[in-house]
Hints:
CATH architecture of the largest domain: Alpha-Beta Barrel
Bound molecules: pyridoxal-5'-phosphate
Number of strands: 16
Amino acid sequence: MSRLEININKIKHNARTLKKEFAKKGITIAAVIKGVAGSPEIANAILECGINTIAVSRVQDIKKMKEFGVKAEFLLTRLSMHSEVADVVKYADISLNSEISTIKLLSEHSLKQNKRHKVVLMLELGDLREGILPEDIDTIIEQAIPLKGIELYGIGVNLVCFGGIEPSEKNMTELSQIVDHIQEKYHVKIKMVSGGNSANYKWLSQTDNTGNINNLRIGEAILLGREPMHKNRIPDLYIDAFTLICEVIESKLKPSLPYGNKCQNTFGDKPEFTNIGAINRVIVGIGEQDVDTKAIKPRVKADIIGASSDHLILHAKGINIEVGSEIQFDIKYPALLRLSTSPYVKKVFI
Ligand SMILES: *Cc1c(COP(=O)(O)O)cnc(C)c1O
């Protein structure tokens, strides 16, 4: 069975290093572990590093962690569905929001459950995924303040993930100014001002003035030691906390060019190949069902030629790879996502 080896100490090192560095600038971290499907073991490891907030995108993952006994403040990163608000209130302490209809439902269900749910309003500052347009924020706040079941806990923004828009002095200052405006106009204290995700690393390392921003929601940087914008390594962090290990199921000298009449493949593509004569073709037992095969890289001298649902085909270069042997791979974020949720991939903590 293919396995994902997870080096807990490397993840802890990354979490500790970032926590210390961000604390110098008055920034707390919500550790986003949606990339590992809310693994309770990883949540506990991060909590041991003094980070108190664990964030995931699916409410089911919070339920799973609680059942495992993880004790944390839980933040839900994805906007809640109307159909799940009861569970959101039950399991999450904080959620990110942009729709007043959803916030009203959260309030209703909170009251029913004798709770006060913490709401972070997401602002749209250009990436065009979730968020309230700045000109609409007042209207939403005026409707949210009277709701008894919720606390207007924070203001947040998310960049890079969808539209590829960078966190900058300009949009971060705008966030701070909007928070000033809200606090003055409505006489409220916004406790959490959450400026973004791992992509804010560069902004944070280059700024001395973080304004009102006091929190970042950090996933990829803790898990994989990289910032998502340019996939650059973050200094002093491990980028290899995860290793994918798969078994070789065929290894043969075969042509480099498929032969016969050409048509489209399973995925609707018509792949092009260059004829470079016979090559060492190696098949390992993993495929698109389990992993984004474009987001993995063998640690041996071999190139990935392509993949189907269950087979990954490599071109081994100058090395002999035997059937039954194992190949290790480095993984990137899109690969981690799918590997974490695949029941066909065993998770092994080392
Ligand atoms: C995924 C996500 C994050 C974490 O992003 P990373 O790039 O992994 O740090 C933070 N906030 C929101 C709203 C997200 O959806």
